[in-house]
Design brief:
The complex is a heterodimer of chains A (387) and B (184). Chain A has helices spanning 18-29, 43-55, 66-78, 89-104, 132-137, 153-170, 180-184, 251-266, 269-272, 292-306, 324-330, 348-354, 376-386; strands at residues 14-17, 31-36, 59-62, 82-87, 109-115, 147-148, 173-179, 186-189, 275-278, 285-288, 311-316, 318-320, 336-341, 362-367. Chain A is of the alpha/beta class and 387 residues long. The model of chain A has no long low-confidence stretch (mean pLDDT 97). Chain B is of the alpha/beta class. Classes of the chains: A alpha/beta (387), B alpha/beta (184). β8 (186-189) of chain A pairs antiparallel with β2 of chain B.
Chain lengths: 387, 184
């Protein structure tokens, strides 16, 4: 097998797998530590990084389980490394406690979940979109979520980099959600040249160590982040804490901490949210779909357009925070919306929530949870019901 | 132009690898290429299929819907996917293992497994013979690029064997095109 596969000429197309593109994106974003436990359909990410990280002088550790994997990346991030783990639904479940710890302690890191059928061990090799809500509410307590959702191999690469950028910028764990089919399929892609990539790194404190407060609040709610070993002493706990990181029971400090966690996300929605509008300008019927289902939807849109039917697609690349404003605006003048998901109905509730005042329109659910991809034909059938 | 190929059989026959080799070779020719697969949780046995879609236009739906070419290495796969074949498509099946009732599409019976065992002493290279046959028959992929893909993706110790298998597949396809009856 060729060893210089990833030193390719970026002007030429290369056949890459979705999982492979995630690993490459992470490497190019500056991944310094990967801790994980392999699980189908995400294993290729760990496999590739186990080869590529040591070659580049970076650290890869196969942990004993997913609880430890999540703990390891939080620890690595606190010593200043960009850190990532990759898993699937069963492992994502096991990571939830430490994900909450990462959110509470505002530690940048990236968690990749290549979804498979669930619940429990479910369908290891089949596609499903059952973890939408787990990415939003998997860990307990109030907390925002940043979750990105690619629909192509190239986008796996781009959104992996973006996941690191957002994690570093907003000091928080970020989720990258893939479908089994996106993770496992291959496409001929041209990656952007490395010198054109926009890479964001965490802001280090510019105060002397004795003045440093690990969670110092400010109008942007994002505190500069020191690393252990840089001479800064700081305390990190999952208990609700004050600006110095020590547990607090004071109402004002509790509220300030909780507002900080929320507002650093909600004050920056324009930066966080990406939505693709595909043939939406004059659409009478809209399809709402994310990830691999959006690819079936695009096919359905093009076939409908050939028959003169005005159909479009709304595809969120950011599913959390949910693009309320964008979806509401795009659906203002459509007659009907088909919400297509490979689950029993998760994001549909978000679409219905944000369009609750648009009484003129029909909302049609299209759900498949039999281990198979929603096909263009499935979507065309629903379109034919309304156009 | 959109050309949809499905390689089908059972887990362990190397069909996913075969599809990757075809796709990687095709990707060098500047076309849009998408490779995808469906397989069970077991690494051997059970049904397995892999798709290769080659197109000038953007490829959205990541699975072959109606097939220009279908390869079947097992009876189960043939029974399952034959209805997806276009009427002007091509069916290629392993006549060592599969029986097909006459259909409208061009039907090519090659005893791939038997040929692999007779000529190269192992059934492990059945997949490589079959994809080289497909590449040559369809003229979609050059032998040069296919050989490069083999060298890039296969473990060192198997490369020579797989190159021989590829050359055998090419010869079988040329013989078929020249109207020679293929015997084992």
């Amino acid at each position: 097998m060729s060893t210089d596969r990833y030193n390719m000429d970026r002007n030429k197309p290369i056949l890459l797998q979705g999982n492979e593109a995630v690993a490459l994106g992470a490497l190019d974003a500056g991944l310094g530590f990967f801790g994980g436990y392999p699980i189908t359909p995400s294993s290729e990410i760990a496999e590739i990084l186990s080869n590529e990280m040591p070659k580049r002088g970076r650290k890869f550790i196969q942990m004993e389980d997913e609880l430890a994997s999540m703990a390891s990346i939080i620890g690595a991030s606190l010593v200043g490394k960009k850190a990532m783990t990759a898993t699937s639904g069963p492992g994502f479940s096991l990571m939830q406690e430490n994900i909450g710890f990462g959110m509470m302690t505002e530690v940048p890191c990236v968690v990749v979940n290549v979804q498979r059928g669930g619940p429990s061990t479910g369908l290891p090799t089949s596609p499903a979109q059952g973890d939408m809500m787990q990415a939003r509410w998997g860990t307990h307590g109030d907390h925002p979520s940043i979750t990105l959702y690619p629909d192509s191999v190239l986008e796996c690469y781009e959104l992996a980099i973006r996941a690191f950028n957002l994690a570093e910028k907003y000091r928080t764990p970020v989720f990258l959600l893939l479908d089994e089919l996106i993770g496992h399929m291959r496409e001929a892609v041209k990656l952007p040249p490395k010198d054109e990539l926009k890479i964001i790194n965490r802001v280090n404190p510019n105060v002397p160590p004795e003045w440093y407060k690990h969670f110092k609040n400010n109008p942007k709610y994002i505190s500069p982040l020191a690393s252990y070993g840089q001479g800064y002493r700081f305390h990190v706990t999952g208990l609700t804490h004050d600006e110095k990181g020590f547990p607090t029971n004071k109402q004002t400090e509790i509220q300030a901490k909780m507002d900080k966690l929320l507002k650093k996300i909600t004050d920056n929605l324009d930066d966080l949210i990406q939505v693709e509008a595909f043939h939406m300008d004059d659409a009478e019927v809209a399809i709402f779909a994310a990830g691999v289902v959006a690819r079936s939807a695009k096919e359905a849109v093009l076939r409908s357009r050939k028959k003169g039917k005005k159909v479009g697609l709304i595809r969120p690349l950011t599913i959390w925070p949910f693009p309320d404003k964008e979806v509401e605006r795009m659906l203002e003048s459509t007659k009907a919306t088909i919400i297509a998901e490979m689950n029993q109905g998760q994001l549909i509730n978000e679409v219905l929530r944000v369009t609750k005042y648009q009484k003129h329109a029909k909302y049609i659910e299209l759900q498949r949870y039999d281990g198979s991809l929603i096909t263009p034909e499935d979507i065309l059938e629903k379109i034919n019901e309304v156009l | 132009m959109k050309y949809q190929i499905r390689l089908s059989g059972s887990g362990g026959q190397g069909l996913i690898l075969g599809s990757i080799l075809l796709s990687e070779a095709a990707s060098k020719e500047g076309k849009n290429v998408l490779q995808s697969q469906a397989y069970g949780p077991a690494s051997r046995g059970g049904s397995s299929r892999a798709d290769v879609i080659i197109a000038d236009e953007e490829i959205y739906y990541p699975s072959a819907e109606s097939l220009e070419l279908l390869l079947c290495l097992t009876q189960e796969a043939a029974d399952k996917y034959i209805t997806l074949l276009k009427s002007d498509g091509i069916l290629i099946f392993d006549s060592s293992n599969v029986k097909i009732n006459p259909i409208k599409a061009e039907t090519i019976a090659i005893p791939f497994t038997q040929i692999a065992i007779d000529k190269l002493k192992t059934s492990l290279v059945t997949n490589i013979i079959a994809i080289a046959f497909i590449a040559t028959l369809t003229e979609l992929i050059s032998l040069k690029e296919l050989k490069k893909a083999i060298k890039n993706n296969i473990k060192e110790k198997f490369i020579d064997l797989d190159i021989k298998a590829a050359e055998l597949g090419v010869k079988l396809a040329k013989d078929y095109k020249n109207g020679k009856v293929i015997k084992t």
